[in-house]
Amino acid sequence: MPAVLPALGLPVLGALADELFGAGLGWLYATCAVLGAAMAALVATRRGWWWIVSGAPVVTLTVACAVDYLARGDQYRGAGLATQGLKLVSGQFWPMTAALAAALLAVAVRTRRTRKAHHG
C-alpha cells in the first residue's frame, strides 16, 4: 500500500465524517489524522519517513482548512477570514502535534524492529 493513502485518506475521511455527523472538526478527525500519520510511517520506505514525519502536521492542517472552508465558506468572507483562520489554526495545534508524535513513534518502532531482526 502506498504511504500516501493512509496519510491523506484517513484525515479526509475523518474530517468529512465529523462535518457530516457533528458540528465541525472534532475527535474523529483528530483520531483519523493521528492514525493516518502512524500508518503512513509504518508502510513507508526508509527514505519516505522524512516526508511522512515532516508532512504529518502540514497534511493535518491542510485537510482541516479545506474541509472547514468547504463546510463554512460563508464565514470566511471579509473580516471573518482572519477570525475563522486563526480559530482553525489554533484549534489544530494538538491534532498536528499528535500526528507528528505518532509518525515519529511509528518510525522508532520500525527502526527498533529492524535492528532486533539484524542482531538476532
Fold and architecture overview:
This protein is mainly alpha-helical and 120 residues long. It is 81% helix and 0% strand. It has five helices and no strands. The two termini are 28 Å apart. The model has no long low-confidence stretch (mean pLDDT 91).
In short:
The chain has 120 residues and is mainly α. The chain contains 5 helices and no strands.
Major pleated sheet: none
Terminal residue distance: 28 Å
What sort of overall outline do the alpha carbons produce when their principal axes are compared?
elongated
Strand content: under 5%
Work out the helix count.
5
Unreliable spans are none
What is the SS-derived class? mainly alpha
- For the secondary structure, the number of strands is 0
One letter per element, helices H and strands E, the order comes to HHHHH
The radius of gyration computed from the alpha-carbon positions, rounded to a whole number of angstroms, is 16 Å
Fraction of residues in H or I helices: over 70%
Mean pLDDT: 91
Secondary structure blueprint with pairings:
Blueprint: H1 4-21, H2 27-43, H3 49-71, H4 80-91, H5 93-119
Helix pairs in contact: 1-2, 1-3, 2-3, 2-5, 3-5
Defining key terms:
single chain
